[in-house]
């Protein structure tokens, strides 16, 4: 393989890796969005998932247990948010903001308490389990780009497929969608819109928790501000994807490509890294503007 | 019998304040080796002498100004989540201007120009999100956050690159000349005359809010957008203006910090002020006068947390948890029935 092809393969491979947390979180956020709730807490829930997931994985040396802890903690966060919002009739945006603040506070305080540092906490995890047989990853170009990935990365795509199925074909998913379209109609049919809303928030907790965990696993550490805006980027992916799972996945790939490119540019160009770091946000902002519609 | 108990605004504020104070006491009890002295550090030290009191009041000043801006945007249901970037970039713009002005410039001119630069920078950044909302129907929350993320990176770049003070080991701009800093009151604390400006702005807002058509129309835009449009109120203009004012107030808060307590712009300058100002606006419950006690309370949590951090090793991020808990309580409009039952039995 020539040099250029190798570089391109690298960029594309990392694009898929970088898309993993975004895909988990944005498909999770799709549930709450369909139920009529703009969930700005994806960012905080991802942070909670990353911290508790990595802590549990580090403690037990078992990535699967870490994954469960990530889901559990982020779902707990989304239940807290849902309870205050739905049962206590609170403003969704304010509870979402509170979750984001809480996530930053709890992870910093617990990190200091458990690991005696607020800085990077590195964990030794077992090596990632490859999802595909080694032979496939030997295929030139396509192999490293598509078939070198871990089970965790591949499960983000499975998650998207399963979620799409739940949304479109299950009663549960249809009730969530109906709640977003016309909550009154749902309650006149004898179903509880509040229950559908709560369930949608739980799904967004599951997705965000997994997304945060994927971020932690990708660096084998918990880093302060590890999510750094990806929860918001995932939110924009929902809009750019017009609330359709397939297009959301494509949007996640687009944002992941910008992240992958910005990582690559940082190493090889004279553009200052801090400016390059702004690239994914800029791409996201432009997409957000493009996905808006005129009045 | 109603299924739930409605909570009125004063009750919510009391709950939020009470619970966050109780929680901080619990945290202190859990983590500190000497509870008595930790409690004293948290609750009393900020008031214990002129120096601590002045510093504590100085911390409340940017919260009052930025909190007022958030409150004004809330009036029209606009939610500015870009405060961190707006404050940071505006502080940097104001700081750069103050550093470039000739040494002979009258201090008053420096203060005025720096404050103006801060306001205009913040307002421009905020207005962008308002414009996007008005023209493209884009959520102002998401766009203001993203713009802020970009602006923070760009500001970081300038501070660590072209504007870095070569003589300093910190990532910071150069220090302003002492005579360009606002006159201090309660020396040696960092409290300066900007507290007067904060109070004047709050009073001015209360007058505009109660006595003018602008204040009334802003409120209508927030309460019912369609009705406002039907009445011929230029809703789009109010959306843009609300976000611009909110950004401008963050900008002013940032500029006043540069020509006041900070005297320079360090990397990470805004350090959570953008979010704390939202807590202040929420605690104030839409009342201009409420901004003052709300800012004093949030500043108290922050100061108290800084003091325990030094005393007991609890990181100062504990303040984010306290603020989050206060937010939950302030925004909850009712308590479910189970609580009432328990209260009755």
TrEMBL record, chain A:
<dbReference type="GO" id="GO:0022857">
    <property type="term" value="F:transmembrane transporter activity"/>
</dbReference>
<feature type="transmembrane region" description="Helical">
    <location>
        <begin position="63"/>
        <end position="80"/>
    </location>
</feature>
<feature type="transmembrane region" description="Helical">
    <location>
        <begin position="198"/>
        <end position="216"/>
    </location>
</feature>
<feature type="transmembrane region" description="Helical">
    <location>
        <begin position="38"/>
        <end position="57"/>
    </location>
</feature>
<dbReference type="GO" id="GO:0005886">
    <property type="term" value="C:plasma membrane"/>
</dbReference>
<feature type="transmembrane region" description="Helical">
    <location>
        <begin position="92"/>
        <end position="115"/>
    </location>
</feature>
<keyword id="KW-1003">Cell membrane</keyword>
<feature type="transmembrane region" description="Helical">
    <location>
        <begin position="146"/>
        <end position="167"/>
    </location>
</feature>
<keyword id="KW-1133">Transmembrane helix</keyword>
<dbReference type="InterPro" id="IPR001851">
    <property type="entry name" value="ABC_transp_permease"/>
</dbReference>
<feature type="transmembrane region" description="Helical">
    <location>
        <begin position="12"/>
        <end position="31"/>
    </location>
</feature>
<feature type="transmembrane region" description="Helical">
    <location>
        <begin position="271"/>
        <end position="290"/>
    </location>
</feature>
<protein>
    <submittedName>
        <fullName>Putative ABC-type transport system, permease component</fullName>
    </submittedName>
</protein>
<keyword id="KW-0472">Membrane</keyword>
<dbReference type="Pfam" id="PF02653">
    <property type="entry name" value="BPD_transp_2"/>
</dbReference>
<keyword id="KW-0812">Transmembrane</keyword>
């Amino acid at each position: 393989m020539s040099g250029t092809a190798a570089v391109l393969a690298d960029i594309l491979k990392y694009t898929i890796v970088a898309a993993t947390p975004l895909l988990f979180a944005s498909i999770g956020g799709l549930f709450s969005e369909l139920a009529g709730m703009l969930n700005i807490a994806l960012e905080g829930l991802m942070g909670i998932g990353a911290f508790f997931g990595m802590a549990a994985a580090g403690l037990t040396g078992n990535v699967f247990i870490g994954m469960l802890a990530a889901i559990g903690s982020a779902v707990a966060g989304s239940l807290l948010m849902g309870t205050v919002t739905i049962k206590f009739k609170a403003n969704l945006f304010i509870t979402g903001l509170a979750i984001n603040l809480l996530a930053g506070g709890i992870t910093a305080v617990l990190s200091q308490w458990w690991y005696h540092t607020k800085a990077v906490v590195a964990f030794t995890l077992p090596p990632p389990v490859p999802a595909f047989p080694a032979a496939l990853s030997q295929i030139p170009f396509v192999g490293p780009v598509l078939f070198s990935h871990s089970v965790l990365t591949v499960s983000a795509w499975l998650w998207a497929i399963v979620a799409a199925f739940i949304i479109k074909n299950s009663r549960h998913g249809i009730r969530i969608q109906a709640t977003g379209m016309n909550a009154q109609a749902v309650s006149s049919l004898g179903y509880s819109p509040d229950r559908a809303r709560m369930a949608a928030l739980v799904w967004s907790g599951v997705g965000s928790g997994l997304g945060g965990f994927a971020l932690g696993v990708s660096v084998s550490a918990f880093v302060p501000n590890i999510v750094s805006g990806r929860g918001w980027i995932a939110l924009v992916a929902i809009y750019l994807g017009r609330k359709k799972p397939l297009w959301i996945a494509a949007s996640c790939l687009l944002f992941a490509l910008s992240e992958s490119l910005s990582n690559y540019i940082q190493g090889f160009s004279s553009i200052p890294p801090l400016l390059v770091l702004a690239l994914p946000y800029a791409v996201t902002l432009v997409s957000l503007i493009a996905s808006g519609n005129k009045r | 019998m109603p299924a739930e108990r409605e909570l009125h605004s004063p009750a919510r504020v009391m709950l939020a304040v009470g619970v966050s104070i109780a929680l901080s006491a619990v945290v202190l009890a859990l983590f500190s080796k000497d509870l008595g002295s930790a409690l004293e550090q948290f609750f009393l030290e900020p008031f214990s002498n002129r120096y601590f009191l002045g510093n504590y009041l100085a911390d409340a000043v940017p919260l009052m100004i930025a909190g007022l801006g958030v409150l004004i945007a809330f009036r029209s249901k606009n939610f500015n989540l870009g405060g961190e970037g707006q404050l940071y970039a505006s502080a940097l713009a104001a700081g750069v201007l103050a550093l470039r002005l000739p040494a002979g410039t009258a201090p008053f001119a420096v203060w005025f120009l720096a404050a103006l630069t801060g306001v205009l920078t913040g307002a421009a950044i905020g207005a962008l999100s308002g414009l996007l909302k008005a023209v493209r129907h884009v959520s102002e929350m998401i766009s203001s956050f993203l713009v802020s993320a970009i602006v923070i990176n760009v500001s970081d770049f300038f501070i660590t690159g072209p504007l870095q003070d070569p003589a300093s080991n910190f990532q910071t701009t150069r220090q302003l000349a002492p005579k360009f800093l606002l006159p201090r009151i309660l020396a040696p604390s960092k409290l300066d005359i900007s507290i007067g400006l904060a109070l004047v702005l709050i009073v001015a807002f209360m007058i505009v809010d109660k006595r003018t058509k602008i204040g009334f129309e802003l409120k209508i835009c927030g309460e019912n957008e369609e009705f406002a449009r039907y009445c011929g109120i230029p809703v789009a203009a109010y959306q843009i203006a609300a976000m611009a004012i909110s950004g401008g107030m963050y900008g002013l808060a940032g500029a006043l910090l540069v020509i006041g307590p900070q005297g320079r712009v360090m990397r990470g300058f805004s350090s959570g002020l953008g979010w704390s100002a939202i807590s202040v606006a929420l605690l104030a419950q839409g009342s201009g006068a409420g901004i003052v006690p709300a800012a004093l309370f949030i500043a108290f949590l922050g100061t108290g947390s800084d003091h325990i951090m030094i005393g007991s090793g609890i990181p100062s991020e504990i303040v984010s948890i306290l603020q989050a808990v206060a937010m939950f309580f302030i925004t909850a409009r009712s308590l479910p029935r189970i609580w009432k039952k328990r209260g009755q039995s």
